[in-house]
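Service request form, structural biology core

Requester: graduate student, group of Dr. S.
Request type: structure prediction, single chain
Budget code: on file
Notes: please return the result as structure tokens.

Sequence provided:
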Amino acid sequence: MTFLIDGTVYNQPLLPGHKQDGAEFNRFGLFNLQTTGDGMEAYFTELVLDQQPVDLSNSAGWEGFGNKTEFRDRHLRPYHDFGWNPTGIPGGNSGSIGGVIWRDEKPAYYASKVGPVTLDDELVASGKITFDGAGSDSGVYLGWFDSQSKTNNGSSDHDQPQRNFLAILIEGPSRIGHYFRPQYRTTTGEGELPADGPIIRPDHRVHKWSIHYLPRLADGQIQVTLDENVQTLTLKPGYRKQGASFDRFGLFNLQVGGHFVDIAVDDLSFTRASREK
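Core staff response, request fulfilled:
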């Protein structure tokens, strides 16, 4: 592809394999980016298509779809909009939790009181989830955490990692989208996150999920499932001894700048009290 503006030429070759993948186009014109953001105003004239001037003296031959509309934008940074919802997800029970959750440096969560439970307890949670929307560089945690550690941490995760949690992280690099993978951090902030995992897409599909922490397996092992995909993360030697304590289970944000996810969780069950084995 060659792009020319004000006499400057920019070239962008297709990546290997993309031409073979194919693409089909049946319109030429303006179309929106389907992600959150602000507006812009721009006008184009003296348009030439296939070396033929395009008559813009009237709108004949042009088609509009959604271009004259008003809507309430729920995705306004940095306004979270998540919690309990009276409606469930398709095929689930009435009621669900979730909504719009931003990556933001300030702590935010919606959770139920538990325990406290620790890395010496067996922990289990499961349910259904729909992923309904997302921007790039977005994510959220679903799992056990310590409310005091969360609310007392007003720093970016880059400067001071969150402590005392064991959860599913829905997040990933923009080139991938969103992985569905386990993560934990001890009371000192030490922990691990797999490099990749099963991919979940914001396509409104209903998925079954679970997370199971087994303290007596190796040095402690986390098993996360998304539909038929299973991922296992074993705690590093000595990390379980560092300890971690959790008094909440629910959704909590990544404390680093980014964009939003829109999710709903239903048919939820989780460990609320100590069940050491």
